[in-house]
Every structure is written in C-alpha cells, then in structure tokens.
Amino acid sequence: MFGKRADGKRIRNIDPIVSLTPYLMPMRCDAQVMMDFKVDFEKLTRYIAAKREEGYQITFLEILIAAFVHTVAEIPEANRFIVNKQLYARKDLTVAFTVLKEGSSGVNVEENTVKCKFLATDTIFDVTDRVKKAVEQSKKEEADNATMKIAKVLANPLLANPLVALVRFLDRVGLLPGAIVDASPFHTSVFMTNMASIGMPAVKHHIYNFGTTSMFFSIGMVERTTGVGPDGKAVRKRMLPLGVVADERICAGAVYARLVDGIIKGLNDPSILEKPAENIRYEEVTAYRLDKAEEKRLQEAQKHITA
C-alpha cells in the first residue's frame, strides 16, 4: 500500500511526461504497441543442430527466452511495470509461457502455464536447464503447479466474481500475497508462446490489464521468402516470425529499440548467449543478483565454456 509492493519498488525520479502517461492511458490495452519481426530460421536450426552434437538439447523458445534475459540484463529499464498508474521496478526477472500436458496415451490433451525465474547472469545453458526442469514437471498429467491450483479455485462459478474482484483490489493497492504473485503468470516480465507448436502463425497477443505483464512475445510458423544473397542473386530463405506486444508506458521508445535490437542480435547469433551479458546493470531493488552459491556455479560454468 502507498506505493509498496512485494514484487517491485516505485520509481519516483522519472520524466514528468512519462509519469503522466498512465493517467492519459490508464490501462495496458490503451498503451499496447504491436510489432512484428523476422529472424533467419536457418541460422537458428544450424545452431540447434551444432549444440545437439555437443549434447545440448535447445529449443527455439529457449533461445528466445535466453535472448530476452541476456538483453534485459543490460537494460533493466525494460523490466518495469505499471500498477495503479504508478511505475515500478520489478524485483524479479521472470518469463511465463504455456506448455502442453501429455495424457497417459502420449497425446497432448491440455495446457499448463509455467513461470520461471532467471538471473541476469544466466547463459543460454542456464536458461535451458531452468526451463526444462519446469516443463518436465508441468507436462506430467498428474502435476498441478501453484498457478493451476489457484486457477482452479478462482474458476469456481460461485467464487470467481468476488474472488477475482478481491484479488484485483489487493493487487492494485499492493497487498496481494507474495505466494499468489509468485504463482500468477500475469505477474511476469514477459509472457511468451510458441504458436508454431500448434501450427499457427505468429500472433500479436494482447497484454493483460490484470497483473504486471508488460510484454508478450509469440513465435509463429516458419515462412518461406526470397531474399538477396551475397552475390546479388535471388535466394530462397526461411524466416521465423515473431509477434511482439509491449506496454509503451514503462520506458522510452529508444529503450525499447535497444531491447529489440539486443534480442534480434541474440537470435541471429545465439553463440553470444553462451556467456553472461558483458555490461550487466541492476536497478536498486532487483532481487535477481548473484548470491555466493550462484556465483560459484557461474564460475564453474564459465570454466566449462572456455575449456
């Protein structure tokens, strides 16, 4: 309450125009900026194949997550959110995404939502390890993570309206319990989805008014196109489309431009994601810093990479 939240700290020293925009556009649906990008599918597949030969199983979604984590590590301003018309610095670096659960017959029958926490120092190998552990648990038919358990309670027809209204109110005044915030996929740095896994094109998915999600990324089905090769001749290319929706109120357009540029660079050359970002910056309140155990683990990982 009064600007205090479990998942963020209010930023007060900001440009007056920036502080005014939430009053002009009070909801995220007012401030959605939609973008689409395309990255070279061939480069990604070659990288994934090369890593597979080294014993690493890496997916397209994991590369996108790693590129996001790697870039936000250098641009923490992109990891902010707005609640109750106030701007906050997020205390965690998180990514929420949807996975398909497998039934006893091996057929994908329903969805589960996963939210992973990351460190600014995470490499693509760290990201892959965290994501795979979370996905492995969530894909089990009998597994219900905290997110799904809370969703089932809120889905009760007799309880849905009053409980959701209460949750919205507590969230707005900063009194929502930390356990709910941690479980909620709507309280995350970014929500991502791989639409290609269900045969769909990249979508520009809305960002939710509930929660604190400031960005939504989607991967679509591969598109075939024609480009110009090094010799000036026409060549066929396969491109991976990305749909991006962002809350324009959380940072300046120039900051978003740097974020997108960093993510695209990571997708076009995933090898740069194998080491932590070079110029890691933290906002004052961020909790995703290295403790001693994580620092030792990182040093061991760096030795492995350079060996």
Characterization of this structure:
The protein is of the alpha+beta class and 307 residues long. It has nine helices and ten strands. The strands form two sheets. Strands 2, 5, 6, 7, 8, 9 and 10 form a seven-stranded mixed β-sheet that branches. Strands 1-4-3 form a three-stranded antiparallel β-sheet, with no helix packed on it. The longest helix is centred in the C-terminal third of the chain and has 16 residues, at 253-268. It is globular, with a radius of gyration of 20 Å. The mean pLDDT is 86.
Helicity range of the residues? 25-40%
Rg, Cα atoms, Å: 20 Å
Principal-axes shape call: globular
Number of strands: 10
What percent strand? 15-25%
- Poorly predicted residue ranges: none
Reconstruct the topology from this structure.
Layout: E1 8-10, H1 16-24, E2 32-40, H2 41-53, H3 60-72, E3 80-83, E4 86-90, E5 93-102, E6 108-118, H4 124-138, H5 146-154, H6 160-172, H7 178-183, E7 190-194, E8 215-219, E9 223-228, E10 234-247, H8 253-268, H9 292-306
Parallel strand pairs: 5-7, 7-8
Antiparallel strand pairs: 1-4, 2-10, 3-4, 5-6, 8-10, 9-10
Helix pairs in contact: 3-4, 3-8
